[in-house]
Amino acid sequence: MKLHRITTAFLAAATTLALAACGGGGTPDDSAAGGGGGFSAEPAEGGTVHVLQNADFSYLDPARGFDGGVNNFYRLVYRQLTTSAPGSAEDPNEIVPDLAADLGEVSDDGLTWTYRLKDGLKFDTGDPITSAEVKFGISRAWDPEVGIGSPYLKQVIDAPEDYAGPYRSGDLPTIETPDDSTIVFHLKEPFPEFDAVLAQVNATPFPEGTGQGDEFIHEIIASGPYQLAEYVPGSTIKLERNEHWDPATDEVRAAKPDAWEFTIGLDPATIDERLIAGQGADVNAIAGTVQPATLPRLQTPQLQERVLELPGICTTYMGLNTTKKHMDDVRVRQAISYAIDRTAIVNASGGNQLGAPSTTILPPSVAGHQDFDLYPSADGTGDVEAAQELLDEAGLSDGFTMTLDIRSQESMQAQGEAVQQALKRVGITVELNLIDTATYYETIGTPSQQNDAAITGWCPDWASSAATFIPPLFDGRNIYEKGNSNLAQLDDPDINARIDEIKAMTDIDAANVQWGELDEQILELAPVVPLMVAKTVSLPGENVTGLHSSANAATGGIDYVGVGLKDPEKG
Predict the structure, then answer these.
(1) How far apart (Å, rounded) are the C-alpha atoms in residues 81 and 61?
(2) Of 42, 147, 460, 497, which residue has the fewest beta carbons closer than 10 angstroms?
(3) Given this model, what pLDDT does residue 34 score?
(4) Strand ordering across the sheet containing 175-179
């Protein structure tokens, strides 16, 4: 959801980083940057990388978690048949083999994809990873309780209509395992980007029969270079080396540190103070975007060379629940779209250094983006007159009251308050419903718990295609009881039909043009209100290196698989 990718997920959880040096410090590939050692210098072997963050991860179970705060963490402990290239690669957006020896072999009709596993793959238990474990892990995505994460497996792979995962329905016949190293997938319809679907975190293998109920809430079975050493919810996560991981089978994960330690529950201002001071183990620490109040302090010469900045790749938006009273009227939704003050939203989020106003669903970084603004206003402050006219037409001249779901974070509450002030101008009273960050996406992704609107975000699951934005957010046939990403609960026959037409196109570049046009067609219905594209500004410890950006794996932040320390003995 990454709101898997959800832009404000990594702001709130404070787990991702930025990438281009600001203040004249150079670029991340400039060896002169980052205190002379280079942001991207090769890490040494050993040491512990520390991550300071405010909120806990949503889930350790990759079938459940699907947000920008946890997907990068999964990359340290889990593997899939395919994955995103490391951030240090020539093309970090490329999908490459991981557990598979090569990318998939596709049949002439595009409906069958075959993969063969590498030799020597093992879980942290020492047990082998075979095609049966890959199939089992993937089939967990259909479980109505566990499989609330990434939606693509269920959307693309064929399955019996009543299939409800391995715990309830047993074997999934549309995934075949003719031998221990071969796995064959049968799709609903051709999908040329299927390699990218299998790179999603819920395509992680697990031993057959494991992971039912809450088994993976506090314990995991690792397939990556690190295994769970300790987990204290809301406090600490410690990772140690997985001795059964064979680096000869893994061309993606450098895994230079001996360990990782995540400290959770810190006040965001405290995180900033610790990184500015850079004392003790904090020289080996990374965190997410600094607080807006901290930005002016980063301009000092002592800190400028450590500042990392990256333009955003994710859209922050407000979903309007079209099943709710008043929100089921397109005129009301359009009125809200006119009344929103995007300038105030950006200012509430920290100003132009941390965000830019957005009037489209597709951000500029995603293929298919087209510039348009269906609800323009002077300086982006909102057109109150146009909004009031639409409310008058809808018989709501005196306004109404609505409930807005937001994360219980200071910056997110500031966004909610900016929405309150903007809509108050047309008589709409907005009541804020604060939800804990760790459970936010599950809550708003459960239609029975959803209120009138919610502020969230969406990032590309693979940046080369707008297919990772439009269908998950607006296909009415993919509204689930849990793990729902269509927060507007939009089920429009014309939109659904257009999605089918574009998905059937085999020319991905041509399809992206059509996705951009569909973006505009959807926003004419105003099921969501694009607000901003968030940017990141971060201050890693002076001893941290191997900092490379990844749009796919880290929602535009630093890909953890390359991170390490310049001097493992330091700190």
Answers:
(1) 17
(2) 497
(3) 35
(4) 105-106, 112-116, 182-186, 175-179
Q: How far apart are CA 384 and CA 78, in angstroms?
A: 49
Domains of the chain as residue ranges with CATH: 8-78+217-307+537-565 (3.40.190.10), 82-203 (3.40.190.10), 315-534 (3.10.105.10)
CA distance 459 to 533: 10
What is the C-alpha to C-alpha distance for residues 411 and 290, in angstroms, rounded to an integer?
11
Closest to 477 (Cα-Cα) out of 151, 201, 159: 151
Q: Write down the residue that tokens 């039909």 correspond to.
A: 497
Reported pTM: 0.81
Strand ranges inside 370-426, DSSP E: 401-407
Q: Which residues of 502-536 are buried (b: 16+ CB within 10 A; e: fewer)?
A: bbebeebeebbbbbbebbeebbebbbbbbbbbbbb
Rounded CA-CA distance 462/456 in Å is 19
Q: How far apart are CA 490 and CA 156, in angstroms?
A: 20
Whose structure tokens read 């690190």?
Answer: 226
Sorted by sequence, the CB contacts under 8 Å of residue 348 that are 6+ apart come out as 411, 414, 415, 417, 418
Give the whole-angstrom CA distance, residue 537 versus residue 521: 34
Helix (H, G, I), strand (E, B) or coil at 240: strand
Contact 181, 160 (CB under 8 A): no
Give all strands (DSSP E) within 264-369, no chain letters: 285-286, 308-310, 315-320, 355-357
* Gap between the Cα atoms of 279 and 421, Å rounded: 41
pLDDT of residue 557: 76
3-state class (DSSP) for residue 533: strand
Q: What is the pLDDT of residue 553?
A: 65
Tell me the residue ranges of DSSP E strands in 387-441: 401-407, 429-435
- Of 193, 5, 196, the residue nearest 85 (C-alpha): 196
Residues of the chain by 3-state class (helix, strand, coil), percent to 5: 30, 20, 50
In sequence order, what DSSP letters do the residues of 464-516 get, joined into one string?
Answer: T-GGGTHHHHH-GGG--SSS---TT----HHHHHHHHHHHT-S-HHHHHHHHH
DSSP state of 290: P
HEC secondary structure over 308-334: EEECCCCEEEEEECCCCCCCCCHHHHH
Q: How confident is the model at residue 55 (pLDDT cuts 50, 70, 90)?
A: confident
Q: What angle do CA 474, 475, 477 make, to 5 degrees?
A: 140
What is the Cα–Cα distance from 504 to 494, expressed in whole angstroms?
Answer: 16
Q: Give tens-digit pLDDT for 514-561.
A: 999 999 999 999 999 999 998 888 999 999 999 888 776 666 678 899
What's the DSSP call for residue 394? T
Distance (Å, whole) CA 538 – CA 518: 35
